[in-house]
Amino acid sequence: MIARTASLYTLLFALVLALGGCKKDDFARETMAELQKLADDIATSVEDAEDKKAGVAAGQKLLDDKKGELLPKMKEVMELRGFQVSEEVAAEVNKVRMDAGMKVASLELSLVGQTAQDPELEKALDKLTTDFTNLVDGT
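RESULT FIELD:
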C-alpha cells in the first residue's frame, strides 16, 4: 500500500513538473514575436529610406527605444532550460533568433556598395547590426 501511494505521489509530482515546465512557452513566444517585429521594423526603415544614413539612424532609434524593454526578456529566454519550455518552443526560439539576426545582418550585404563609399554609413550600420546581435544573444 505504501509503495502504491508513493508511486502515485511520484506520478503526480512528475505531472506537475511537466505541466509547470511549459509555463514559459507563452512568454518565450511573445518575446520572440517582439524580436521578430523589431527586426522587421528595422529592416523596413533602412530598406525603404531614400537616404540610407537616415534609415540606419531610424533603425538604431527603433532598437534603442525597444532595447530597455526587450533585453531583460531576451536574457530570461536565453536562460530557459529544456524543462521550462516545450521542445517545439525551444525550436521556435532558435529559428526566430536566427531569422531576426539574419534579417538585420543582411542589411550590411544590401548596402555594401554604399558603405564602401561612405565610412559614416558603414560605422552606423556596423553599430546597428552589432547592437541588434547583442540583443538577440541577450547580452
